[in-house]
Amino acid sequence: MPETDKLPPTHGAGSGHPAPDAGTVGDPGSDSDGRAGEQASAGNGAPAGEETRTGGQAAEEKGTAFRLAAFGAVLVVVLFAGYGIGRLNDSVERTRSAPAPQAATEAHAHDATGTGTGTNGTGTGTNGTGTGTNGTGTGTNGAGTGSGATAHDDTGAPPHLHNPDGTVTQVAGATAAQSVGGLAITASGLTLQPGTTTFPAGRKQPLTFRVTAAGGAPVTTYAVVHDKPLHLVVVRRDLTGYQHLHPAMAPDGTWSIDLVLAQPGSYRAIADFTAIVGGQQMPVTLGADLTVVGNYAPVTLPAPGTRATADGFTVEYGGTPQTGSSQPILMTVRGPDGKPAALEPYLGAYGHLVVLREGDVGYVHVHPEPQPVDGAVKFWLAAPGPGRYRMFFDFQVAGKVHTAAFTATVS
Predict the structure, then answer these.
(1) CA separation (Å) from 3 to 55, 88, 214, 244, 384?
(2) What is the tens place of the pLDDT at every residue in 112-140?
(3) Going from the N-terminus, what domains does the chain have, and what CATH number goes with each?
């Protein structure tokens, strides 16, 4: 029953009793009349009593408190939901802004502070800026690769190190055979597109080519490797007529250089470079055939030996190339007077060793240790397989570059 039904009737309009005059107190002998008089007096004759108002106010206060509590709960839920959505958006934004992992199609090694792909695949480097266990990515300690970099040898990507200044250095002491480059015109999504491939014998003619990425767009950005963005080796298929050249690139990505091919025959043009595609460095070696019209008379390889002469210099090497493991090859150069020659840095090193395989002109380019060892230029070479090879050693004395050639047999 409602609380107002329990209250005694009041003397007011509609109560069934005549209302007393203002200020008149009811009969003291009647509790009902006394209380009614007090209520009428207190309420100025209002029909609702104090207890009725007290009950209504209590109900209204309870309703107000419930509504406030509900509103507070909703507000808390909204705040937490907004916080959660903000965290989610932040995570998504970090994921979007994180560098994309690089595919492990061109695996290669890194030094302690370089950049490039890491060991066998993708991931975040511990201290590096790239992908892979020893590769690049968002690193804890800034730019650099994780520790324990090792060499990797995929087709078209000879073992090398990426240096902080953007240069790349050949790996010394690689435990696996060096990769053979120059056998394909396309590798790792890059294609060598030569212009004219037919040349006259003994006459100068421009050689032009482009390197294109997937879709045919020309590559126009390259890493500088040993002072040059691209190294071009041209040799006849009998391994004669060797030239180590450095063409220039136009803004549209076209490389060009004047080329003289002395004798008729089939030549191999081998482009050794590190392209930068999508912000990633891609070391690749591509090859294309050139033809000199005329009667081709192949030359038999000289007998194997460890001594050769070049422009009055005598060059000897020590060491035995093997398959499966890198072996030290030490080049010693003496001048016409028989004294050790004063070697000078050439293209960022004290010498360059290009090794070409008989039969398919498979190409390996090796760089030496930073400083001569007891006057000798020290390379680390692992033959890619058994067979006969021609080794070309480029060195510089008094500002002039010389090339000594050796034949080596690997069993």
Answers:
(1) 7, 54, 87, 110, 103
(2) 233 333 333 333 333 333 333 333 333 33
(3) 3-48 (no CATH), 186-292 (2.60.40.1930), 307-410 (2.60.40.1220)
